[in-house]
Amino acid sequence: MEIEEEHRKLINELSISEETVELTSAFEITKFIKKLKPKKSSGFDQISNFMIKLLPPGYITCLTICFNVWIKEGRYPEQWKLAKIVTLNKLKAGVPRCDQTRPISLLATHSKLFEKIILEKVRYWAEMNQLIPSEQSGFRPQCLLPTRVLSIYQEVDNNMAANIPTLAIYVDYQKAYDKVWHAALIVKLNRLGMPHGLLKFCVSWLNDRQAYVVLGEQSSN
Q: Where does the Reverse transcriptase domain start and stop, copy by copy (predicted)?
């Protein structure tokens, strides 16, 4: 297939590319740590947000060094690709079937911190290249969903005043994230002009993901 062939060639190009991403700093890491919610839930490493927020400045310096090594290499640590999945019962009482549970994926807190730093760089690239529609409010800083709801309400109200019908289409994709075609996604980002330094991170972040399920005292691994 055309996409698969383009993806294969792109992966070869990325493997020899020496393009890197701007390094992070202790200040930037500290900023993201302060924004973490003090949750006590943890991934496989048993380290929670609550614990991260109590770390001394010297540890932040160590994190900065580690993060910058991985940024220079364009590599996402393999150990952080393991997710711990816990299942929540959707029922108020009784033993649920598999389709009556809600799986929650818990990742290592350090990995989420690292992802926030990379996401900031991806978001900056997308915003600077005007790749995100102005109408999109979800998952964007300083863009609130109520603002978008109000704009829709205003448009409907204006149309009603002018006796013009309003057509709205709502789409909800089932398991949209799980079904993303990774090869096509990487090719699409490359066609949009994403720098190879960031693209290498995306490839590394997506590849070789693993997970195990915890139910009570039992674990699948």
A: 94-205
